[in-house]
Amino acid sequence: MKYIFCAFIFLHGAIHLMGFAKAFKLAQIEQLGTDISKISGLIWLIVFLLFVVTGIAFLAKAQCWYWLAIVTIIISTLLIIFVWKDAKFGTIPNILILLAALYSLSTFAFNNKVANEISTIMKQADTTKISVITKEQLNDLPYPVAKWLKVSGMIGKEKINTVWLSQKVRMKMKPGQKDWNEAVAEQYFSVENPAFIWKVKMNMSPFIKITGRDKFVDGKGEMLIKMFSLLNIVNEKGEKMDEGTLQRFLGEIVWFPSAALNQYITWEAIDSLSAKATMNYKGTTGSGTFYFNEQGDFVKFSALRYKGNEADAQRYEWVLTVKEHSIMNSIKIPTIGEVTWMLENGNWTWLDLEITDIRYNSSIEIN
Known about the structure:
The protein has helices spanning 2-15, 17-23, 38-59, 65-82, 91-124, 143-152, 239-251; strands at 162-171, 181-190, 195-205, 208-217, 220-227, 231-237, 265-271, 274-281, 284-292, 298-306, 315-328, 331-343, 346-360. The chain starts with a helix and ends in a 7-residue tail after the last strand.
């Protein structure tokens, strides 16, 4: 597709050579009824060259291509308006190229914003206090939680302070939706100073692209979803969002089990297969219940979370259920699972996810 679009840019640019050819009497251009001065002819030539450079920059994935495209489209449109009014249909390819450039620009701006947020939480992560998990450190944990850490393989391993993971995701955006929307996601965690950034890319249809970012930093949560990285669909923050994203962080420690030892989490034994966790960080508090099987593997997390951020939003049970475990980087973690809202009108399984890669305490390249 990119080669077709690049050829389209070159072909549209080549049309501008007609003005140059007429100005310097290199060819008879009947479509151009007005006389064109040599200075104007040179401008037509410059626009052609700008389109060529724009196409090359696009092909090379240079970030400057969209600025080149915007400048070139402005000059081209002015030429159509003031010199070649009969070529009004030439504004159509200009608009198409302009839309592609604006999409690329908005995507770059969104990705740059998220990259700066990720860089901030990674810099806050305390990587100087890497310690090894011992059996003695598990003594104060409820029995099923301590057993889970042992079964996961954390004994003798470094305490996890930073995490990067990638996910293959399927989502249903509303209850009753029949088909899944496929997406890919990445998530970055700081553990000692609890924070995460989750970013997702999803195609709602061949022509509608969705980007999203969930954030939990300094005890505050935020959800941002954009169409074409430009138009806000969701932009939510507030106390309900703070609590909900904290609960999400709490449930997701199953991917880095040593976080269960952090002081911002307190544990309460329920029985031999479950325990309640309460997380309190910078004024935001939330709880959830962890469930385990007889072998000690984590199998389910349940929390009462606000569904939505409106003033009248209510709490409903939010459940993460494990379908499959795998050993990744010597740690046994849930790698396939689903997330369900238990609503009054029925259960809504809105997320199906698979962990495709995970890295701990390593230098992380921000994409």
